[in-house]
Amino acid sequence: MRLSRYFMPTLKETPAEARIVSHRLMMRAGMIRQASAGIYSWLPLGFRVLKKIEQIVREEQDAAGAQELLMPTIQSADLWRESGRYEEYGEEMLRIKDRHGRDMLYGPTNEELVTDIFRAHVKSYRDLPQLLYHIQWKFRDEVRPRFGVMRGREFLMKDSYSFDFDFAGARRSYNKMFVAYLRTFARMGLKAIPMLAESGPIGGDMSHEFVILAPTGETEVHCHRDLLDFDVLGSEIDYDGDLERVVGRWTDLYAATDKKHDPASCPVPPDQLVEALGIEVGHIFYFGTKYSKSMDAVVAGPNSEPVPVEMGSYGIGVSRLVGAIIEASHDEAGIIWPESVAPFKVGLINLKAGEAACDRASDEAYAKLNDARVEVLYDDREARAGAKFADMDLIGLPWQLIVGPRGLAAGVVELKERASGERQELSIDSALARLTG
Ligand code: 5CA
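That is the input. Now the predicted structure with 5CA docked in place:
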């Protein structure tokens, strides 16, 4: 993509309403635009990141054996009356009437809708377990939408739902999602720690929040410091095997959100206890038969007896993650994208656009990177070098390939790694080999 044609409205000034760094940087980098309170348009650069995150989430869900479907954003109130949550959910639910006067709502979550799908089609214990998910926009009329996409009113969520015959099965499904979540967040360069949590309006009695520590987080957490050093991606996972050991490694050490924390019974000695703020990027719930009983989602057991299915639900804040990753990875100059979610891998800077040798070398590098399917944003604008460097640092692409007249005369270009700031002079061929290899 050529920057001269790319729709990336960067801002020089920091918008006054943006109170945390991720919101400021997303606005300044031209990633989002507020449409109304807590509701955002995703501009091309931001949308690319959102899609990358969504894809990692999808791959890890698929690897764990979950199946993707897509449910609508608008739901009928009748289903929510069956579960009793239509009244219970309160003001956070956006209620709508259609032209026939029927009560509808913009879904804040999907337990009722997915239970309705399940009960219509699954009749026997032989068809269990089932693990279904979708990645869809949600609406919650938050009292105080704030911090940009971190607490929006409209936001993108991945929500999965498990259906099992008994508690042992439900526990296996819960463990699958637990492990898939560890891997999902690790692939985005995040250290997300599972913490014992309150279930809130979803219900149930077993729940973990996945929290990344950040001073701008809204969740207070208490955990054993060793959890911060656990490695996640090192070992292969067999989702059909026994996951208790993997999960146990995490849950054996103390970690709890504020609502579940009791200083009096906390087993961690003070010098090993981390007490900090964090961002909740995922939340998993086991709630047994809460919805299957109220909504009559039963299957026939081995002796044809009707058995309400055991359920759990598992959410990831896909759009929140964009902000959370920036909170975890930035410096004074701007964003530092982990390569796995970066909108482009390489920013190619032509320091002297309009000068024949620079144009030729830059155009050629651009073509070669494109041919090698390396995602590259090519700054071909006629602008000051300082402005180009500042923009490139601001948008945080992992690599900058800098082509300038002085270097070219000596047969070299510069390759800068955004995260470390390290710069290296090398021939254009070796630079390209590095980026395409
Ligand atoms: N049905 C369950 C699991 S699918 C559920 O709704 N869980 S939740 O309420 O915890 O939401 C799941 C995730 O969505 C949260 O962990 C959080 O990362 C994200 N999320 C929740 N509210 C917002 C919001 N207002 N803005 C952005 N992300 C949000």
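The radius of gyration is 24 Å.
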